[in-house]
């Protein structure tokens, strides 16, 4: 007898590796979509529209629940707003700006360091112990990320020059790490309800940025392609991926969940090969093996302190 669709969805929602792997895939798709959006929609407009589309879908479903949980929300509204501004608005804005003034090698390496930020943040904020096995797992996954970012030539790191874009990306990773760690102590309410609230704050906080963009570079209306790409970004990287990482943190904690972020550059390479005809090189396979090995090592039962 075949399991029912509801049972399958229940099993998926209870499997942190499945959810976090899909999260990495959706975020990798976001990188491809962002490249396709160049010239079709301006970066800060994209940031705001993605959250407006998310609200358009989620508020009719969960708006009443947000209002019902207001007694829990109101005492922590400042903290919740900070989460949204840092993790949902700030990270994306800095990422798009940084991409204009640094190299792909540097962006890949710095983004690959995000799990280390998450693990450090979990230790500082919650006293989460870090084992030697977890450190080894993170190191191996970061080596895989480096192989991808340097196209199989890690010696390129020796000649890397860090500039303003590198520093902005470093700050962006730190912001998202803070957001990921903070998810562990979010108010007790269903994940979709809490995320709906965060999306509202993210949309509101991006309004001044769009006004600034229009005042400095002029108001540029997005093309139909830009709007369609924004809708895709709103559904997968902005909504499903955020819900999945929220659930993943709930299931296994921020430190272990953060390791899966290293799948993003690997999936990005795979999608670039299949969707925009970039050649597949041997270093892609090596990097994929390293990242998966690192995740497996960091997730082993004995790697997590009791």
Helix content range of the residues, please? over 70%
Count of structural domains: 1
- Determine the structural class based on helices, strands and strand pairing: mainly alpha
Enumerate the spans where pLDDT stays under 50 for 5 or more consecutive residues: none
- Cα(first) to Cα(last) distance is 38 Å
The H-and-E topology, N to C, reads as HHHHHHHHHHHHHH
Radius of gyration: 19 Å
Count helical runs: 14
What is the tally of beta strands?
A: 0
DSSP strand (E) fraction?
Answer: under 5%
- What is the average per-residue confidence, as pLDDT, rounded to a whole number? 80
Overall 3D geometry? globular
Explain this structure.
The protein has 306 residues and is mostly helical. It has one domain. Helix content is 76%, strand content 0%. It has helices at residues 5-13, 16-36, 43-68, 70-73, 77-98, 104-112, 114-126, 132-149, 164-182, 191-217, 224-252, 254-258, 263-275, 282-299. It starts with a helix and ends in a 7-residue tail after the last helix. The model has no long low-confidence stretch (mean pLDDT 80).
């Amino acid at each position: 007898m075949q399991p029912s669709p509801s049972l399958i969805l229940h099993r998926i929602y209870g499997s942190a590796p499945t959810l976090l792997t899909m999260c990495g895939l959706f975020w990798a798709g976001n990188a491809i979509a962002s490249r396709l959006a160049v010239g079709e929609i301006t970066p800060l407009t994209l940031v705001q529209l993605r959250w407006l589309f998310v609200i358009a879908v989620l508020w009719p479903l969960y708006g009443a629940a947000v209002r019902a949980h207001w007694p829990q929300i109101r005492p922590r509204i400042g903290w919740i707003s900070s989460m949204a501004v840092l993790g949902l608005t700030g990270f994306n804005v800095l990422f798009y700006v940084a991409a204009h003034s640094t190299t792909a090698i540097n962006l890949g390496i710095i983004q690959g360091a995000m799990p280390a930020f998450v693990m450090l943040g979990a230790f500082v904020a919650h006293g989460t112990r870090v084992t030697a096995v977890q450190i080894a797992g993170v190191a191996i996954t970061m080596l895989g990320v480096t192989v991808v970012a340097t196209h199989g030539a890690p010696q390129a790191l020796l000649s890397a020059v860090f500039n303003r874009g590198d520093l902005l990306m470093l700050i962006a990773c730190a912001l998202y790490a803070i957001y990921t760690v903070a998810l562990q102590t979010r108010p007790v309410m269903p994940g979709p309800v809490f995320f709906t609230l965060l999306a509202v704050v993210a949309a509101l906080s991006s309004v001044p940025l769009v006004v600034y963009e229009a005042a400095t570079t002029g108001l540029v209306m997005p093309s139909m392609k830009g709007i369609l790409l924004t809708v895709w970004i709103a559904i997968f990287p902005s909504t499903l991926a955020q819900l999945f990482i929220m659930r993943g943190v709930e299931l296994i904690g921020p430190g272990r969940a953060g390791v899966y972020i290293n799948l993003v550059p690997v999936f990005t390479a795979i999608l670039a090969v299949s969707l925009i005809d970039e050649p597949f090189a041997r270093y892609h396979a090596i990097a994929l093996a390293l990242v998966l090995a690192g995740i497996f090592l960091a997730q082993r039962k004995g790697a997590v302190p009791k």
